[in-house]
C-alpha cells in the first residue's frame, strides 16, 4: 500500500522528500512564503496552496499522513480549557483543525527545540493536550543532526503520532499494542564538513574585506585553544567586530534563517575566505544532489535555514511506514 501524505508549512519540501524516499506519495502541499513556493514548484512541479488558515478540510484530497513544520507561537490561555480550543489563534490550531476534520492515521510534526520550554512550558502542554484530545498516541524527541550521521549542530523537536484505534505504541509504553514505533538510535557521523565542500566556487561567494578583518581579529586566539583541530576544516560564523565563533570538529554550526539577512550570518570556510554555497548548505541539510535552488540569493539561504534535515526526517518516516504496514498486514 502506498500511503498518501499532505505537506503543510512545506517550506522547500524537505519533509516531502523524506517521506517520498520511503514510499509515500505527497498529494497536496501548503506554503505561504512566495520565494519558498517558487523553489518548491521548480523541484516538484507543483504550486503549494497558500495561507493554511484559508484552507478548508473539504478541498484536500484523501490522505493518510499529515506532516507539518509549523512555527512556534504562544497560546492565549485566558480560558484555561486545556483542550482543542486553547490552540485557537495560532497556526498550530490550523494543523489541529485539519487533523480533527480528516482524522489521518498518522502525523509528523517538526519544530525548534525551544518549543519544549516556550512560554514556561505552556506551549508544549497545549499541543500535547490537543493531540491527545484528538485521539492520537504520540511521542516526541529533541534530536541533534550531529548525533544521527549529519555534521550539523542542529537540535529540533520531532513528534510522531498515530490514531489510537490503530494500537501503535512507542518504545517504553505499556499497553496492548499491535506494533511498536522505535525512534532511531544515535550513530557516528557519516561524513564531515570537509566532504561536502566544492573545489571550484565562484568568487561571488568570497567574504567582504570587513568580514575577513573581523575573522582575523579572533582566529589566532582560537588556533591556540585546545578546541582547534587542524585535521578538519575551520568554519567561522556569527562574525562581528565584537566576536567570532569557530568550529574545527568536522561539524557545521546550525544553519538558520538568519543566513538570509546578510553574509556575516552564513558560515565561512576560513581557508578560502568564502561563504558556504547553497549547494553545500543543502548537503548539510541532507538534501539530494538533484535538488535545485537559485544560487547566491539571500532568499535561498533563508529557505535552507528554515528547512529540515532530510536525513533525520527520512529515518523517522521510514519507521512510521514500517509500523503502519505491519498493522495493515494484520487486517
TrEMBL record:
Keywords: Methyltransferase, Restriction system, S-adenosyl-L-methionine, Transferase. It is an enzyme of class 2 (transferase). Pfam families: DNA_methylase (PF00145). It catalyses: a 2'-deoxycytidine in DNA + S-adenosyl-L-methionine = a 5-methyl-2'-deoxycytidine in DNA + S-adenosyl-L-homocysteine + H(+). NCBIfam families: dcm. Belongs to the class I-like SAM-binding methyltransferase superfamily. C5-methyltransferase family. PANTHER family: TRNA (CYTOSINE(38)-C(5))-METHYLTRANSFERASE (PTHR46098). This is Cytosine-specific methyltransferase. It comes from Sharpea azabuensis.
Amino acid at each position: 500500500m502506498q500511503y498518501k501524505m499532505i505537506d503543510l508549512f512545506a517550506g522547500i519540501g524537505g519533509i516531502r522528500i523524506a517521506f517520498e524516499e520511503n514510499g509515500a506519495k505527497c498529494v497536496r502541499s501548503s506554503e505561504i512564503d512566495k520565494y519558498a513556493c517558487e523553489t518548491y514548484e521548480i523541484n516538484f512541479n507543483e504550486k503549494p496552496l497558500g495561507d493554511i488558515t484559508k484552507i478548508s478540510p473539504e478541498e484536500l484530497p484523501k490522505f493518510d499522513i499529515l506532516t507539518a513544520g509549523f512555527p512556534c507561537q504562544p497560546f492565549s490561555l485566558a480560558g484555561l480549557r486545556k483542550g482543542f480550543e486553547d490552540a485557537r489563534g495560532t497556526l498550530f490550531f490550523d494543523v489541529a483543525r485539519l487533523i480533527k476534520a480528516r482524522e489521518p492515521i498518522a502525523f509528523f510534526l517538526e519544530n525548534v527545540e525551544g518549543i519544549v520550554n516556550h512560554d514556561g512550558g505552556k506551549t508544549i502542554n497545549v499541543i500535547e493536550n490537543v493531540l491527545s484530545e484528538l485521539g492520537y498516541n504520540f511521542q516526541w524527541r529533541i534530536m541533534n543532526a550531529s548525533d544521527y550521521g549529519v555534521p550539523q549542530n542542529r537540535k529540533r523537536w520531532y513528534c510522531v503520532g498515530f490514531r489510537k484505534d490503530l494500537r501503535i505504541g512507542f518504545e517504553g509504553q505499556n499497553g496492548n499494542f499491535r506494533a511498536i514505533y522505535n525512534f532511531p538510535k544515535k550513530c557516528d557521523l557519516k561524513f564531515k564538513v570537509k566532504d561536502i565542500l566544492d573545489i571550484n566556487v565562484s568568487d561571488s561567494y568570497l567574504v567582504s574585506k570587513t568580514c575577513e578583518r573581523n575573522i582575523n581579529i579572533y582566529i589566532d586566539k582560537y588556533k591556540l585553544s585546545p578546541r582547534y583541530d587542524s585535521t578538519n576544516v575551520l568554519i567561522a560564523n556569527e562574525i562581528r567586530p565584537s566576536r567570532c565563533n569557530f568550529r574545527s570538529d568536522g561539524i557545521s554550526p546550525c544553519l538558520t534563517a538568519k543566513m538570509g539577512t546578510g553574509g556575516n550570518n552564513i558560515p565561512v570556510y576560513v581557508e578560502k575566505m568564502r561563504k558556504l554555497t547553497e549547494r553545500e548548505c543543502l548537503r548539510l541539510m541532507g538534501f539530494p544532489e538533484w535538488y535545485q535552488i537559485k544560487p547566491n540569493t539571500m532568499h535561498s539561504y533563508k529557505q535552507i535555514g528554515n528547512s529540515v534535515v532530510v536525513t533525520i526526517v527520512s529515518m523517522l518516516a521510514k519507521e512510521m511506514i514500517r509500523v503502519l504496514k505491519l498493522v495493515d498486514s494484520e487486517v
